[in-house]
Write a structure and sequence with these properties.
Layout lengths: L1 E6 L2 H8 L6 E5 L2 E8 L2 E7 L4 H13 L5 E10 L9 E9 L21 E2 L2 H14 L5 E8 L7 H10 L3 E5 L2 H11 L3 E9 L9 H22 L1
Helix pairs in contact: 1-6, 2-5, 3-6
Bound molecules: S-adenosyl-L-homocysteine.
Length: 231
Amino acid sequence: MKTAIVSAMHEELGAVLALMPDERRQPVAGRDFYVGHLHGRDVVAVLSRIGKVAAATTATVLIERFGVDRIVFTGVAGGLRHGVERGHVVVADNFLQHDLDATPIFPRYEVPLYGRSRFDTDPALTHRLAGAVRKALPGTTLHRGLIASGDRFVSTTAESRALQLALPDALAVEMEGAAVAQVCHDYGVPFAAVRTISDRADDDATGDFLQFIRDVASRHTAAIVEAFLSA
Ligand code: SAH
């Protein structure tokens, strides 16, 4: 069983690599894949890079070239729904691309030729990931549900409000998850994703974003990954 741990930010990947005693770097498609072990389990750790296309390429290489059996994504996201606050954690049950619009040929958000707009994560893997969050971060508020992905860093209150109105059940917004979910759907590879809320996707979103990644999100990622792989 080979597990891919995919991170969106350098700081998070660094926190994962610090837990791997024997990783070897293997460059493919301009990306560095780190093959080794974590808690004695076979792991490939990699940076997704930012945005849907970059994340889809990373997921495809993980499956085609490295033969991973499952993909776990860790990263940060902007909170959308009321009550999803900075420092909270969201585990995804499904993903949607909020910037996909092939109307009038297909309904808004629908991925053409798939007949659907939402891609589910794997229920068993997701259950296990949520368990790892509870174990690793007791006392941290954990949400489960829909995450919206798009090729935009949402950082105005106006855009955040518009997204909340259009997608009232979306808990959070980020830039990669829906792409990885679609690739994993195509290949039948189980996928789960966890995001620490770094901002509220509003006019204050960029403030101390990088500081938060360094101080909070990276530690969350390391603790969650460790709990997940030791379970
Ligand atoms: N200003 C940052 C931008 C990084 S992109 C920088 O200079 O580094 C933001 C990353 O965090 C993406 O991987 C995305 O998935 C996630 N993210 C966090 N908050 C987000 C938001 N409000 N909107 C979109 N993506 C967000």
